[in-house]
Amino acid sequence: MTQRGPKPYVLVLYYSRFGATAEMAHLVARGVEEAGLESMLRTVPPVSATCEAVEDSVPAQGAPYATMEDLRDCAALALGSPTRFGNMSAAMKYFLDGTSQLWLKGALTGKPAGVFTSTSSLHGGQEATLLSMMIPLLHHGMMVLGLPYSETDLIHTTAGGTPYGPSHLAGVNNDLALTEPEKRLCQALGRRLAATAAALQR
Question: What's this model's pTM, rounded to 2 decimal places?
Answer without folding.
Answer: 0.93
